[in-house]
Design goal:
single chain; about 300 residues; alpha+beta; Alpha-D-Glucose-1,6-Bisphosphate, Chain A, domain 4; Multidrug-efflux Transporter 1 Regulator Bmrr, Chain A; five-stranded antiparallel sheet; transmembrane; AraC family transcriptional regulator; transmembrane helix; membrane; Reg_factor_effector_dom_sf
Amino acid sequence: MKKIIFYIGFILFGATIWYLFIKPHDYQVNFKAKTFPGPINQMIKTWSNTSDNSELLESGNEDLLELKQQFQFGDSIHIYTWNIIPETDSTSNVKVYAKDPEHSLKNKLTIPFSDTDFEKRTRKNLIDFNKLLNEHISQFKVRVIGEEEINSTYCACTTQTTTQFGKAKGMMKDYPLLDGFLVNNGLRLNGRPFLEITHWDRVKDSVTFNFCYPIVKSETLPQHPELTYRNFPSTKAIKAEYFGNYITSDRAWYALLDYAKDNNLKIEALPVEVFHNNPNMGGDALKWKTEVYLPLIK
């Protein structure tokens, strides 16, 4: 009996030491999200970038499933560690581990016995985020099609480097040049405008891209310092259809990355987007269609 009491006491002592001094977080919140990890990752970043008291802590890797975020509340700093766990191709489980490094021991002592201000603030913060996430999820649709081929074409292109969020703004900037200049100089358009990513930094969410208009090649081509002419080669790829504002068409990129991983496909993470609608004409963004491709590596 003494040995049993000793072992129980030893286990309780060890559990107490772990809980108070080793456990890496003070409070945990779990919730379900009706989308795949990419949109959650991007919405956490958008939420943080638009909050006056928040910043993301650099991870230095491309892992979409874990992020670390810091909040400043008066003289207190709260650290959120986000873990995004994909469940199906359209659902994820999100776990958020919250910690106040300066008051961690106090939180661990009081949380089991009362609903602390730290818990209340954390819950409110994450409820606010969940509302933003659900609103965002309602504003786009992604459907993965599978393997297809991107057709070759001759095209006129501009080149830009920007953030993923700034991609659509960059396209709008060059639209008058590609649409107006080419037509005014007698060139015949030969297909839908498309965007070719040539560099994607998934740590910094920055991209370099060519925004291109397919044209009928002619012997004389009007010259402009911001225009280049090139052959775009055909290539095998995996394809998705995205419906929504072009600002967030990169959500389909992440769906295709997941699809490639789930199906053991080797891809080049340089998306190509083909646009079916002109946003300048307005209308319901959920009816704007984009074909999105990730090239396959042979």
